Task: inverse folding
């Protein structure tokens, strides 16, 4: 029995980053403004108003279709999806039903086995966003709700996948890759709140399918699916059937909950929107040029900068990060590429995540200056991290940002090497040792027991002694040199 | 610049108006200071627009319909808003939530509908011209019943922006007046492209009516003189067509086999679209709100039950049913096939003839309450709805009387040949003028 295989398909709704709404001239830049300030007779659905299609939104959608290798349909059409809800100004949503803009296509993702694999797409269609309800109190027992139509009419594309993903992690990777692709295409801004919403279909092979509605974050998709996998597998294990149903994801509690049966009985009564003409836009496709997309950029990063596959994947998996990386190394590609790949993909991302801030927290020039200090051996890796933390914290606190060089000086973490130290030259004539040599001899005196252990054959004691010397030099000793000098000293005294 | 205005104080004994603008401002142009009545489903900025429904009571549009903008630009004064069947759903204007309009030719009879208020206002001489709307005959029927002229333009020739939709794919705003020249003049003001209506065409109307119709070929569809058509009405119309022949036109009999399904196709299409168009009237944004602490779906139901009249609720139910999953293919999709057949029949006939003539309505105006069941009411639209299904232009021009009541001659033409149907009507009007 092959039971237990997880089958996931997604319906991803993304707001297209146009200047005006899908069917009227209202601005889409509503997030910082008061409720119902970006509205007109059309997006309020006032009687007698009529939709006029925003050609730019269609162009954006075709850009996406082309990038994902979808076929733009010769004649597509808008339809009305009829349902009552207070946030839906016309009591129908203008969307596409049986004649979507584009069909087919695929997106390549890294599978759970680490290999690239294709997630096939079913279709891409264009539709309008409804308004938004603001519940006063909680949604269940609130005293009343307010309606904000600023969002009504924002253009969305819905990308529907085939049930091609095999785990919640793959679904997450699909979304990340899709987000990157849309951002490369300059049609989508993932930083805008609510710009992406996902409906996820999940089943365990051989059982019924469950739809999880309206998940609003990338993490949420993985969480909701993981919860469902456990829930469904438990049901099956106990011999219960999985009901075919719609469930909601409760983000705060990390669980899914069965939707009320009323919500599952929708008959949307689709029919062609009589106020819009059918779309004939296949001929636009050849004229739309695509920028370099994530996969191509990943290959280029490996070829041009010698990045590892993993680093290249991470760096190109986010448009801002990829641009940041290229700006950082621009001045000295040969010298900085390798350092920048590690320091951007591993160190910087880690520090940013820890602080829960975006890449905007740091400018590429300062980061480049820090990497140059590392490249020149002015500071050790360990000090580099300390300096980076200071740089980030200064910016987050809104303090004046010092140059990495100034921070190094203030912290006194310039790398110390015995051979380059001024004192080194004086060894033949004087008795003043350089700080590294001095630290070594101090440690050897203080840590007699470890020295004996080492000489007695316990090689791990060496690392302990290195650590002690590092501590004395406050992390500024050149690790390679320290290893060499310490080994020499230990040999000497035998 | 001093704002100019007219004083409009009509003796509205027929209840043609829902709103009268006693002081109506106007500008300069082709229609300087001409008082024009506007059907109450056409949005007028600052003037209450109710579609003769309780559900829109108190709704004052913040914008003008495109046709109204054009009227104002031509110097016309918006004299008031005229009564109608609620949301355009009716053939008599009896379905107004604010009471019926009376026929100025005989106040015991209906003025026709749904643009009954506009027709009565024009027929009674309260205004020189009016705007009506025609979804399945709503301009031509009251024009015929009240003895005036009304044009249903080619679909897409007049912008629908601001027309409160009943059945988007069928309806047009059109001119109504006592002379063909005035209908033509008003048409020249309201026709033309509007980028806010994606179904509008860039086909302005700049025509001056001409009575020269020698050589005009007229198709006479047998179905327009058959069962269900009052023989006296048919006789009057045949005589009128004879008059056109005297003026140099030739006639050719023809058939419209798709007529058999036209009425069903029409009612399925218009009720389907209406069920969707009218769904937005839920009390959230405009119109009277329900005073309720109930969940929103119960509140919506209450608002809609209280706000819509019987005929509206009947049509919403019919349309909702026709679009339901499992029935869509049987009804809505089939209706579109039938509609396409009607279009093809007209195209085929109009390949051989220039215009098609027949009666506008199968009978003269009904007495109030005469048609009590919906089905027989729907049947009276049989001669007007095919034109809307096909999207072609058609005019109704008075052509005589039966039992003292006016009869309308309907002239239908090729798409975008509104000029030719106007010329045909003009030729007839000039010939019988005296």
Result:
């Amino acid at each position: 029995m092959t039971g237990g295989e997880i089958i996931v398909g997604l319906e991803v709704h993304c707001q297209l980053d146009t200047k005006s709404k899908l069917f009227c001239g209202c601005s889409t830049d509503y997030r910082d403004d008061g409720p119902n300030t970006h509205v007109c007779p059309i997006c309020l659905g006032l009687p007698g108003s009529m939709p006029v299609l925003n050609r730019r939104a269609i162009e954006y959608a075709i850009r996406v279709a082309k990038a994902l290798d979808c076929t733009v349909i010769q004649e597509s059409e808008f339809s009305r999806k009829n349902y009552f809800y207070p946030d839906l100004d016309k009591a129908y949503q203008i969307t596409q039903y049986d004649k979507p803009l584009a069909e087919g296509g695929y997106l390549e993702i890294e599978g759970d086995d680490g290999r690239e694999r294709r997630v096939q797409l079913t279709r891409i269609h264009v539709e309008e966003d409804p308004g938004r309800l603001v519940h006063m109190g909680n949604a269940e027992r609130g005293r009343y709700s307010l309606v904000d139509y600023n969002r009504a009419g924002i253009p969305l594309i819905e990308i529907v996948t085939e049930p091609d993903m095999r785990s919640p992690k793959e679904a997450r990777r699909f979304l990340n890759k899709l987000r990157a692709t849309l951002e490369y295409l300059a049609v989508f801004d993932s930083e805008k709140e609510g710009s992406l919403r996902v409906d996820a279909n999940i089943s365990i092979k051989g059982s019924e399918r469950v739809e999880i509605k309206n998940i609003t974050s990338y993490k949420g998709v993985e969480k909701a699916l993981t919860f469902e996998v456990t829930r469904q597998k438990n049901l099956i294990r106990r011999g219960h059937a999985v009901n075919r149903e719609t469930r909601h994801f409760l983000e705060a509690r990390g669980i899914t909950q069965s939707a009320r049966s009323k919500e599952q009985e929708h008959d949307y009564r689709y029919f062609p929107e009589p106020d819009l003409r059918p779309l004939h836009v296949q001929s636009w496709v050849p004229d739309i040029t695509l920028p370099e997309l994530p996969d191509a950029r990943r290959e280029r990063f490996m070829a041009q900068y010698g990045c590892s596959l993993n680093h290249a994947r991470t760096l190109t998996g986010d448009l801002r990060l990829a641009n940041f990386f290229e700006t950082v190394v621009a001045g000295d590609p040969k010298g900085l590429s390798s350092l920048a790949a590690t320091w951007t993909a591993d160190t910087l991302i880690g520090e940013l995540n820890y602080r829960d801030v975006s890449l905007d927290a740091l400018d590429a020039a300062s980061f480049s200056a820090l990497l140059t200090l590392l490249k020149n051996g002015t500071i050790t890796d360990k000090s580099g991290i300390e300096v980076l933390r200071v740089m980030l914290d200064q910016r987050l606190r809104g303090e004046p940002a010092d140059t990495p060089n100034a921070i190094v000086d203030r912290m006194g973490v310039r790398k110390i090497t015995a051979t380059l130290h001024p004192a080194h030259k004086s060894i033949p004539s004087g008795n003043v040792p350089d700080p590294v040599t001095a630290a070594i001899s101090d440690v050897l005196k203080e840590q007699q027991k470890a020295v004996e252990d080492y000489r007695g054959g316990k090689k791990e004691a060496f690392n302990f002694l290195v650590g002690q010397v590092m501590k004395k030099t406050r992390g500024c000793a050149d690790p390679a040199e320290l290893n060499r000098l310490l080994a020499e000293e230990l040999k000497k005294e035998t | 610049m001093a704002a100019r205005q007219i004083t409009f104080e009509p003796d509205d004994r027929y209840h043609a108006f829902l709103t009268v603008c006693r002081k109506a401002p106007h500008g300069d142009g082709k229609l300087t200071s001409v008082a024009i009545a506007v059907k109450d489903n056409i949005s007028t900025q600052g003037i209450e627009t109710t579609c003769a429904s309780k559900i829109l009571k108190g709704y004052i549009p913040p914008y003008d319909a495109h046709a109204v903008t054009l009227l104002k630009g031509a110097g016309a004064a918006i004299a008031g808003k005229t009564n109608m069947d609620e949301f355009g759903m009716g053939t008599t204007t009896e379905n107004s939530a604010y009471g019926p309009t009376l026929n100025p030719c005989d106040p015991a009879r209906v003025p026709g509908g749904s643009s009954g208020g506009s027709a009565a206002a024009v027929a009674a001489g309260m205004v020189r011209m009016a705007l009506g709307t025609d979804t399945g005959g709503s301009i031509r029927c009251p024009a015929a019943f009240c003895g005036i002229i009304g044009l249903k333009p080619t679909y897409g020739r007049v912008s629908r922006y601001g027309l409160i939709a009943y059945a988007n794919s069928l309806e047009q705003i059109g001119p109504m007046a006592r002379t063909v020249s005035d209908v033509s003049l008003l048409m020249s003001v309201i026709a033309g492209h509007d980028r806010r209506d994606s179904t509008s065409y860039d086909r302005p109307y700049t025509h001056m009516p001409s009575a020269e119709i020698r050589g005009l070929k007229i198709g006479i569809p047998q179905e327009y003189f058959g069962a269900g058509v009052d023989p006296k009405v048919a006789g009057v119309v045949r005589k009128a067509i004879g008059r056109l022949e005297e003026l140099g036109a030739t006639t050719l009999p023809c058939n419209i086999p798709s007529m058999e399904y036209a009425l069903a196709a029409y009612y399925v299409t218009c009720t389907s679209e209406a069920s969707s168009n009218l769904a937005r009237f839920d009390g959230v944004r405009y119109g009277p709100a329900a005073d309720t602490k109930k969940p929103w779906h119960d509140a919506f139901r209450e608002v809609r039950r209280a706000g819509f009249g019987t005929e509206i609720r009947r049509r919403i139910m019919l349309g909702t049913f026709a679009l339901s999953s499992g029935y869509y293919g049987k009804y809505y999709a089939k209706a579109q096939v039938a509609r396409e057949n009607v279009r093809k029949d007209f195209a085929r006939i109009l390949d051989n003839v220039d215009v098609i003539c027949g009666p506008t309505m199968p009978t003269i105006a009904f007495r109030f309450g005469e048609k009590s069941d919906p089905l027989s009411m729907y049947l009276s639209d049989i001669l007007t709805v095919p034109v809307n299904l096909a999207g072609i232009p058609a005019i109704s021009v008075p052509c005589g009387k039966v039992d003292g009541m006016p009869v309308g001659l309907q002239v239908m033409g090729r798409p975008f040949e509104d000029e030719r149907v106007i010329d045909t009507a003009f030729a007839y009007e000039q010939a019988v003028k005296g």
